[in-house]
Every structure is written in C-alpha cells, then in structure tokens.
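Table S2 (text version). Query chain:
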Amino acid sequence: MPTYDYKCENCGNEIEVFQSIKDAPLTKCEKCGKDTLKKMVSGGAGLIFKGSGFYLTDYKDKKTSNSSTSSAKKAETSTPAPKDSAGK
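Corresponding structure-token output:
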C-alpha cells in the first residue's frame, strides 16, 4: 500500500498514512478536528531491487566498467616508441 503525506492548513499538523489507491483522501485533522487536511505532493523514492533473483550487472558501477575499457583502449591506440637511428 502506498504512503500518503497530509498537512492541516489550519494547525500545520503533518501525518503519514498508509492508504489504498482507491480510498478517498482524508479531510479531517486528528489534532484540531477541522476539515482542512490536504494531501501533499511528494517526490517519491527510487525503486531498487536487491536479492538473489537479479543479475549482478543490474547495478554495476559504471565508473569502474568505463575505466577498465578506457585503459584497454589507451593501450590499443598508443603509438610505439620511436626507433633510434641505428634501427634498433
């Protein structure tokens, strides 16, 4: 069930309520008893899956994978050292 945040416009009381999506929004403040309770808009939270049922690469740090591939690319594109005048 989702969590909803409410704030009373009269007394400033803030509450957090677990409600079904189908439930009507609350309007009556528990603290002052007036019908001035309003649902607040929240930013939500990111969804993270953890456990044995997911691939190891799902949350792999992109910095570490890029650094290993970039060092391999550097090795491939590096120019050979110039030869001395004797051709050695």
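Notes on Table S2: The chain has a mean pLDDT of 75. The helical segments are 62-77.
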